[in-house]
Amino acid sequence: MNTAIILVSGGMDSCVTAASAISDGYSPAFLHVNYGQRTEKRELQALHDIADAFQVQDRLIVDITHLADIGGSCLTDSTIKVPEADLENSHIPVSYVPFRNANILSIATSWAEVLKATAIYVGAVEEDSSGYPDCRRSFFDAFEKTIDTGTKPETQIKIITPLITLSKKEIVELGIDLKAPLHLTWSCYQNENLPCGKCDSCALRARGFEQAGVKDPILI
């Protein structure tokens, strides 16, 4: 069975992505990154809860808090306020963490090469990337070329983004179909106890469940 590195933040999208990889027949290895985000502890708890639910033993937790030192995002800089949701915004929002996915994918590639994994699964979604330049499929295509250029000749790693074109409604529906443990996930940018219900991530999640006609299990 081929191994896949799965980037698991603890959010709904990464949880459904993990379920997709397992459904595709891969042996999963979960990578979780602490980068100084506001909800770091709660996301880490969600990672372990999801991994336990899927009975995943291979877990790599990496601290790259230099992203918080660099700053520039409301997710890592406490002096920058998390804005209320604006789902019609067409500009890169202040929640964008500069070049975060490239940092994470570099770590994933290193681990994949050691484990001889053939895929890296990423739960990126273009609908809610809010203009994040490192959440587009074109970015992942470019990074695949970097992997091909910078790894051993025998290394073959593909970046798989099963949710990239889906709406949040479709992600909720897919998660239910795959029996993903959505009740264990955490999406809020701001709080670690109860979802704020006001940030972009909370609003997108709420819209997805509402459109799918399903009650969000973390609110039950």
Helix content: 25-40%
Indicate the low-confidence ranges by residue numbers.
none
Task: Round the mean pLDDT to the nearest integer and report it.
Answer: 95
CATH class: Alpha Beta
Instruction: Determine the structural class based on helices, strands and strand pairing.
Output: alpha/beta
In N-to-C order, the SSE pattern is EHEHEHHEHEHH
Treating each run of at least 4 consecutive H or I residues as one helix, how many helices? Answer: 7
Radius of gyration: 16 Å
**CATH architectural designation:** 3-Layer(aba) Sandwich
- Strand numbers in spatial order across the main sheet: 3-2-1-4-5
* Largest sheet: number of strands, sense, barrel closure: 5 strands, parallel
The CATH homologous superfamily is named: HUPs
**How many DSSP E strands?**
5
CATH fold descriptor: Rossmann fold
Shape: globular
- Name the beta content range: 5-15%
Distance between the termini: 37 Å
Count the domains: 1
Describe this structure in words.
39% of the residues lie in helices and 11% in strands. It is of the alpha/beta class. It has one domain (3-219): Rossmann fold. The protein has a five-stranded parallel beta sheet, with helices on both faces. The radius of gyration is 16 Å and the shape is globular. The model has no long low-confidence stretch (mean pLDDT 95).
Q: How is this fold's topology laid out?
A:
Elements lengths: L2 E5 L4 H12 L3 E8 L5 H15 L4 E5 L2 H5 L29 H16 L3 E3 L15 H14 L7 E3 L7 H10 L22 H13 L8
Parallel strand pairs: 1-2, 1-4, 2-3, 4-5
Helix pairs in contact: 1-6, 6-7
